[in-house]
Design a protein that fits this description.
The protein is mainly β. It is built from 1 helix and 8 strands.
Length: 153
Protein backbone atom coordinates (compact mmCIF):
# COMPACT_ATOMS: atom_id res chain seq x y z
CA UNK A 1 0.00 0.00 0.00
CA UNK A 2 1.39 3.36 -0.95
CA UNK A 3 1.30 6.44 1.23
CA UNK A 4 -1.15 9.09 0.13
CA UNK A 5 -3.86 6.61 -0.69
CA UNK A 6 -6.22 8.01 1.93
CA UNK A 7 -4.85 6.06 4.90
CA UNK A 8 -4.37 8.34 7.92
CA UNK A 9 -1.47 7.83 10.28
CA UNK A 10 -2.57 8.06 13.91
CA UNK A 11 -0.05 9.45 16.36
CA UNK A 12 -0.20 7.82 19.81
CA UNK A 13 0.70 9.86 22.88
CA UNK A 14 1.38 7.41 25.76
CA UNK A 15 1.32 10.20 28.36
CA UNK A 16 -2.16 11.29 27.25
CA UNK A 17 -3.39 7.73 27.57
CA UNK A 18 -1.88 7.46 31.08
CA UNK A 19 -3.62 10.71 32.10
CA UNK A 20 -6.93 9.29 30.88
CA UNK A 21 -6.40 6.13 32.92
CA UNK A 22 -5.49 8.20 35.98
CA UNK A 23 -8.66 10.31 35.59
CA UNK A 24 -10.80 7.18 35.40
CA UNK A 25 -9.07 5.69 38.47
CA UNK A 26 -9.63 8.94 40.41
CA UNK A 27 -13.34 8.88 39.51
CA UNK A 28 -13.57 5.25 40.62
CA UNK A 29 -11.82 6.03 43.91
CA UNK A 30 -14.07 9.03 44.62
CA UNK A 31 -17.24 7.08 43.93
CA UNK A 32 -16.10 4.07 45.97
CA UNK A 33 -14.55 5.79 49.00
CA UNK A 34 -16.58 8.99 49.22
CA UNK A 35 -18.13 8.38 52.63
CA UNK A 36 -15.23 8.08 55.05
CA UNK A 37 -15.25 11.74 56.15
CA UNK A 38 -11.63 12.87 56.31
CA UNK A 39 -9.64 15.53 54.49
CA UNK A 40 -12.33 16.84 52.18
CA UNK A 41 -13.86 13.48 51.32
CA UNK A 42 -17.58 13.88 51.10
CA UNK A 43 -20.61 11.77 51.70
CA UNK A 44 -24.27 12.29 51.01
CA UNK A 45 -26.20 13.27 47.94
CA UNK A 46 -24.25 16.45 47.24
CA UNK A 47 -21.27 18.40 48.46
CA UNK A 48 -21.24 22.16 49.11
CA UNK A 49 -18.21 24.10 47.91
CA UNK A 50 -15.99 25.85 50.45
CA UNK A 51 -13.35 28.58 50.41
CA UNK A 52 -10.65 28.39 53.11
CA UNK A 53 -8.48 31.37 54.03
CA UNK A 54 -5.87 31.70 56.78
CA UNK A 55 -4.90 34.84 58.67
CA UNK A 56 -2.39 35.13 61.54
CA UNK A 57 -5.33 35.00 63.99
CA UNK A 58 -7.71 32.43 62.48
CA UNK A 59 -8.77 30.12 59.67
CA UNK A 60 -11.84 31.39 57.79
CA UNK A 61 -14.14 28.96 55.97
CA UNK A 62 -17.06 29.97 53.75
CA UNK A 63 -19.52 27.31 52.60
CA UNK A 64 -22.10 27.86 49.84
CA UNK A 65 -25.40 26.46 51.16
CA UNK A 66 -28.19 27.97 49.04
CA UNK A 67 -31.61 26.60 49.86
CA UNK A 68 -30.48 25.09 53.16
CA UNK A 69 -32.37 26.09 56.29
CA UNK A 70 -30.19 27.24 59.19
CA UNK A 71 -31.81 24.69 61.54
CA UNK A 72 -30.68 21.90 59.20
CA UNK A 73 -26.94 22.74 59.58
CA UNK A 74 -24.82 20.91 62.17
CA UNK A 75 -21.19 21.67 63.06
CA UNK A 76 -19.05 19.37 65.22
CA UNK A 77 -15.39 19.22 66.15
CA UNK A 78 -13.81 16.19 67.78
CA UNK A 79 -10.16 15.10 67.83
CA UNK A 80 -9.18 17.86 65.35
CA UNK A 81 -11.84 16.70 62.87
CA UNK A 82 -14.29 19.47 61.93
CA UNK A 83 -17.52 18.24 60.33
CA UNK A 84 -20.21 20.36 58.72
CA UNK A 85 -23.36 18.46 57.83
CA UNK A 86 -26.91 19.23 56.91
CA UNK A 87 -29.68 18.73 54.43
CA UNK A 88 -31.22 20.62 51.53
CA UNK A 89 -34.84 19.56 51.26
CA UNK A 90 -36.81 19.30 48.04
CA UNK A 91 -39.26 22.21 47.84
CA UNK A 92 -42.10 20.08 46.45
CA UNK A 93 -41.79 16.51 47.65
CA UNK A 94 -44.73 15.44 45.48
CA UNK A 95 -42.91 16.22 42.18
CA UNK A 96 -46.07 17.64 40.66
CA UNK A 97 -46.84 17.50 36.99
CA UNK A 98 -45.15 20.17 34.96
CA UNK A 99 -41.60 19.46 36.04
CA UNK A 100 -39.39 19.22 32.98
CA UNK A 101 -36.10 18.87 34.77
CA UNK A 102 -34.70 18.79 38.33
CA UNK A 103 -30.98 19.60 38.24
CA UNK A 104 -30.38 20.95 41.73
CA UNK A 105 -29.06 18.44 44.25
CA UNK A 106 -31.09 17.63 47.33
CA UNK A 107 -30.55 15.54 50.40
CA UNK A 108 -27.90 15.28 53.05
CA UNK A 109 -24.30 16.42 52.88
CA UNK A 110 -21.18 16.10 55.02
CA UNK A 111 -17.88 17.94 54.66
CA UNK A 112 -15.07 16.99 57.05
CA UNK A 113 -11.68 18.61 57.53
CA UNK A 114 -8.71 17.83 59.72
CA UNK A 115 -7.85 21.10 61.47
CA UNK A 116 -4.40 21.87 62.86
CA UNK A 117 -3.78 21.62 66.60
CA UNK A 118 -3.21 25.40 66.63
CA UNK A 119 -7.01 25.88 66.49
CA UNK A 120 -8.87 26.55 69.74
CA UNK A 121 -11.94 24.26 69.65
CA UNK A 122 -13.76 26.70 71.97
CA UNK A 123 -13.02 29.62 69.65
CA UNK A 124 -15.08 28.53 66.64
CA UNK A 125 -17.78 30.96 65.50
CA UNK A 126 -20.45 30.28 62.87
CA UNK A 127 -22.63 32.81 61.03
CA UNK A 128 -25.23 31.87 58.41
CA UNK A 129 -26.50 34.59 56.11
CA UNK A 130 -27.82 34.70 52.53
CA UNK A 131 -26.99 31.05 51.88
CA UNK A 132 -23.39 31.37 53.09
CA UNK A 133 -22.07 29.68 56.22
CA UNK A 134 -18.99 31.47 57.53
CA UNK A 135 -16.85 29.69 60.12
CA UNK A 136 -14.04 31.43 61.98
CA UNK A 137 -11.65 29.01 63.64
CA UNK A 138 -9.61 31.08 66.08
CA UNK A 139 -6.01 30.07 66.71
CA UNK A 140 -4.74 29.43 70.24
CA UNK A 141 -3.08 32.56 71.69
CA UNK A 142 0.26 30.80 72.18
CA UNK A 143 0.44 29.92 68.47
CA UNK A 144 -0.28 33.42 67.13
CA UNK A 145 2.73 35.34 65.88
CA UNK A 146 3.89 38.12 68.15
CA UNK A 147 6.51 40.79 67.90
CA UNK A 148 9.29 40.84 70.48
CA UNK A 149 10.61 44.23 71.47
CA UNK A 150 14.38 44.65 71.49
CA UNK A 151 15.53 46.56 74.57
CA UNK A 152 18.82 48.29 75.28
CA UNK A 153 20.75 47.92 78.55
Amino acid sequence: MAFGSGTAVKRIDPFQELMGIQDRMNQLFRSTYSGFGDDNLTSGAWSPVVDIYETPEAIEMTFELPGVNQKDIHINIENNLLSVSGERKLEHEDMREGYHRVERNYGGFVRSFTVPSTIDPNGINAVFENGLLRLTLTKRPETKPRAIEVKTR
